[in-house]
């Protein structure tokens, strides 16, 4: 991943390295990420409001564990938030009470209204984007990046399908983005692109609605790929 943004805060430090907790890990995206990470040697902790449901999902994945969201977050190096936008603020407030300095939050949320006659529609959160809403709700200094909004959960869950796409990554601190990129790049076929500061995230978040429409029209699970970048991307 190319890193271009200056840092204004000290780098975060890791907790249990190589350990990722997924809040909403029983859902479509959370389980898809859990599946790919578990098969890539990452220690996956599947979080849920229902510990038994999380354990049931974890039992099917190599080396994964499951439990309630709070227990899973404790000590994890990274906390991936994969809940619907309708639960985003409530979830971030809950995480704010337990997140510790040095833990990284990766927000995957695309702000969408539930499906109506016109399908899922993008909405504008009061803070500007889901990521900025997260930033406003988490304690000052929490490591936070936004990523993965354009990656299809269906493709992630089916390990027979190869991935071949880019992941747009936004965040205010280089060290956080490097940590997130290290984790995401562990999934074969995903390439993280540093897209700049967190306030750019609204653009990535809105692409989800666009992709959902394309997927419906062409009956597929598309992702995005940026062209013209150096290969491999400089670190
Ligand atoms: N689906 C995709 O292809 C995709 C792709 C990119 C990004 N995203 C983003 O990823 C996020 C999750 O999407 P998804 O499709 O995985 O959603 P989902 O399957 O509908 O829900 C994910 C999980 O969120 C938890 N949850 C639901 N309501 C909650 C609440 N009120 N409070 C706390 N937790 C709640 C549930 O876990 P428990 O009931 O087990 O607690 C559920 O399994 C969304 O923000 C979406 O925009 C999705």
TrEMBL record:
Residue ranges constituting the Pyrroline-5-carboxylate reductase catalytic N-terminal domain according to the UniProt record: 19-111
This protein's UniProt keywords: Oxidoreductase
Listed Pfam families: F420_oxidored
Gene3D superfamilies named among the record's database cross-references: NAD(P)-binding Rossmann-like Domain (3.40.50.720)
NCBIfam families reported for this sequence: npdG
Protein name: Pyrroline-5-carboxylate reductase catalytic N-terminal domain-containing protein
Organism encoding this protein: Streptomyces mordarskii
Lineage: Bacteria, Bacillati, Actinomycetota, Actinomycetes, Kitasatosporales
């Amino acid at each position: 991943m190319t890193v271009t943004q200056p840092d204004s805060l000290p780098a975060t430090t890791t907790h249990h390295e190589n350990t990722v907790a997924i809040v909403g890990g029983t859902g479509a995206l959370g389980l898809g990420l859990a599946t790919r990470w578990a098969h890539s040697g990452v220690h996956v902790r599947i979080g849920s409001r229902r510990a038994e449901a999380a354990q049931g999902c974890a039992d099917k994945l190599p080396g994964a564990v499951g439990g309630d969201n709070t227990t899973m977050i404790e000590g994890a190096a990274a906390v991936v938030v994969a809940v619907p936008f309708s639960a985003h603020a409530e979830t971030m407030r809950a995480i704010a009470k337990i997140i510790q300095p040095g833990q990284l939050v990766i927000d995957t949320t695309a702000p969408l209204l539930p499906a109506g006659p016109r399908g899922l529609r993008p909405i504008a959160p009061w803070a500007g984007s889901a990521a900025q809403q997260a930033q406003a709700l988490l304690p000052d200094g929490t490591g936070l990046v936004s990523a993965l909004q354009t990656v299809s959960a269906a493709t992630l869950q089916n390990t027979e399908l190869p991935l071949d796409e880019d992941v747009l990554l936004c965040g205010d601190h280089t060290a956080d983005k490097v940590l997130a990129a290290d984790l995401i790049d562990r999934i074969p076929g995903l390439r993280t692109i540093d897209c700049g500061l967190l306030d750019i995230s609204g653009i990535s978040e809105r692409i989800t609605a666009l992709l959902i429409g394309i997927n419906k029209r062409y009956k597929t699970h598309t992702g995005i790929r940026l062209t013209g970048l150096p290969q491999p991307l400089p670190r």
